[in-house]
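TEACHING EXERCISE
Course module: macromolecular assemblies
Task: Read the component lines below, then compare them to the predicted structure of the full complex.
Student: A.B.
Group: 4
Components provided:
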Amino acid sequence: MKKDEIVCDCDVIHADVVESVRQRMPDENELCDLSDFFKVLGDSTRARILWALDESEMCVCDLAVLLNMTKSAISHQLRALREATLVKNRRDGKNVFYSIADDHVKQIIEKGLEHIREQKQE
Amino acid sequence: MKKDEIVCDCDVIHADVVESVRQRMPDENELCDLSDFFKVLGDSTRARILWALDESEMCVCDLAVLLNMTKSAISHQLRALREATLVKNRRDGKNVFYSIADDHVKQIIEKGLEHIREQKQE
DNA sequence: CGCATGGTTGAATTATTGTTCAACTACATT
DNA sequence: AATGTAGTTGAACAATAATTCAACCATGCG
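Instructor-supplied answer key:
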């Protein structure tokens, strides 16, 4: 997926700036993890699921009705959320109830909403 | 893109919960805007560009060298960032310097990094 | 047990998105 | 004006990711 060969098609213009930024740059994997995390939030189905679960724990059927989607589609997205440990689940009889796993996530979603609401005002 | 017809393939199980969540649910467009915002952060190239610009303003060539990518690829991603008003630019002679547009973004990136760093410890 | 319901899964399909390539614009220098 | 460098753009291609479909597992109840 990553090439080692040089693909950049230009000369460096401000070598000093580039060098000093390069030295402070976090491990590439860390920024990949970061973008992977945001990627999970970056889908409207998952964003709506997360918002809904922040209001109340729910089972797959409830979410399917709420968002007017198939159980399968919901389940697939819940899996992605589970693997990113953004939601947790518990079984109760025939139902599996999902809820938000992490308080960080609530804060980040809140900050995000704040951001776009301010943006819209301008 | 959206269908009006009912695609949900199950009965509602907890009608009361679903109804009360539905009533509090934000406008669908708002949650779409939210996920679109996170989508912009959800790509490692853009995440690295944002991180770098948070350290120092830079021109396209500098970024291309730093990330070892073509000017074109960088430029396309800067466009996405510009359209989401996450970066701004100014021309100075032959160069176009890019920088972070919004302080919110820095905070959200910081919170995101915090999150994944804690996650990794567990 | 046998069946109905809730939920999950994998493969196929479709949609979306990132990068490349080649052509182009803008500014600066001669 | 002519050339070179910085940057942008659109179309084509490649890679990812979301939804559908059909089959499957798990639980509860007759």
